[in-house]
Specification:
By secondary structure, this protein is an alpha+beta fold. Helices cover 43% and strands 19% of the residues. It is globular, with a radius of gyration of 21 Å.
């Protein structure tokens, strides 16, 4: 479960493996792994954070993640969501400027220092005192963290304070690489450097169908291959192919092919 979900600092605790959550990261997230491990995949690399690790998950990424509790234990993490509004205020206050950064890893490890360890301890105290809902205090704690990070790892300035929007990209290549992600069309549009209207228009020109129809067909075709040729089960693949839940996947598959995923495996 996630506590204080309206706060920009969230404590997460799971007793079983979890893969829930949005696949798009609209803002930077700093994550401290208290117990268990965290795995993140961006379609190119797989990253892992073990207990005690502090990592920066960059904004504007399409990712899939898995939260794994330790044996006979529970997964625990602290996630600090850094809004662009807070960063822009700091950029103005401290005259911080950054160049556009590209080709960076989706998840960047942050080396722990004594200041960062003390900072994490202070967040644990906030959890214990049920203070994560105190917005002025949380805003101050996030500002404190950014200043500590810039002191510990100055190169992070180019990541955190890069306010540029995604550049216009090759739509066909992008969609063929990222169709498995369960995000809304406006997210795809933004990440390809387009308005939603332009995205839909360009999509029709490239694929000669609507984004919704193309995404559904692409995911179902891959599902058919994985079930039939690789012997996967529906429960193994539905999340990875961008479906909300198993029942929705099974219903959609049967409507497309005329039989359920289980029946296909029996053929």
């Amino acid at each position: 479960m996630d506590s204080a979900e309206t706060s920009d600092i969230v404590y997460s605790c799971y007793h079983s493996i979890s893969r829930k959550g949005e696949n798009f990261t609209p803002q930077h997230i700093l994550s401290y792994q208290m117990a268990g491990s965290f795995m993140l995949a961006d379609g190119r690399e797989i990253y892992k954070a073990a207990a005690g690790a502090l990592t920066l998950l960059r904004k504007n990424q399409l990712v899939k993640f898995t939260k794994v509790p330790p044996e006979n234990g529970r997964f625990e993490s602290l996630n600090i969501y850094v809004s662009e509004r807070n960063l822009q205020q700091m950029a103005g206050e401290y005259s911080i400027q950054a160049d556009h950064s590209s080709g960076l890893a989706s998840m960047i490890p942050v080396g722990m220092t004594m200041l960062l360890r003390n900072y994490i301890d202070s967040l644990k105290a906030l959890i214990d005192s049920n203070s994560l809902g105190n917005k002025p205090l949380i805003d101050l704690k996030i500002k404190e963290l950014i200043l500590i990070l810039l002191d510990a790892q100055p190169g992070l300035k180019q990541v955190l304070f890069d306010f540029s929007a995604p550049h216009k990209s090759d739509l066909e290549a992008f969609m063929n690489q990222n169709y498995r992600y369960n995000v809304k069309l406006d997210r795809f549009a933004y990440l390809t450097g387009r308005s939603l209207a332009t995205f839909k228009r360009d999509f029709e020109k490239v694929f000669h169908t609507s984004p919704h129809k193309w995404l559904l067909q692409k995911r179902l075709d891959e599902a058919y291959f994985l079930l039939k040729e690789q012997g996967k089960s529906a429960s193994d693949i539905y999340v990875d192919l961008g479906f909300e839940d198993l029942s929705h996947f099974s219903y959609t598959f049967k409507r497309q092919f005329g039989y359920s995923p289980a029946k296909l495996k029996a053929f």
